[in-house]
Amino acid sequence: MLPRRKMIVIFFVISIGLFALSYQPSPTSASADFIFLVDSTEDLPDFAPGNTVCSVGHKTDGPCTLRAAITEANLNIENKPVKILLSPGIYT
Question: What pLDDT, in 10s, does the model give residues 7-26?
């Protein structure tokens, strides 16, 4: 009877070991990137720097300029990845 019990114990130990090796915890929720869509070619500053919204002339509803997008990216206190998307145009 001892060899059978020993084989069962070895089977369970190997099974638990294989499960532990194959276990991959689910990743934590990935933080979303900050994406700023530049829709104005004007050179105007952000209305409220640091609020994570690229907006000129209004706190949240104004157009987004390249200067405002760069300002918001530089003030990114959450250190999230930042993407600045430019619409076609000449930026001066």
Answer: 888 888 888 877 777 777 65
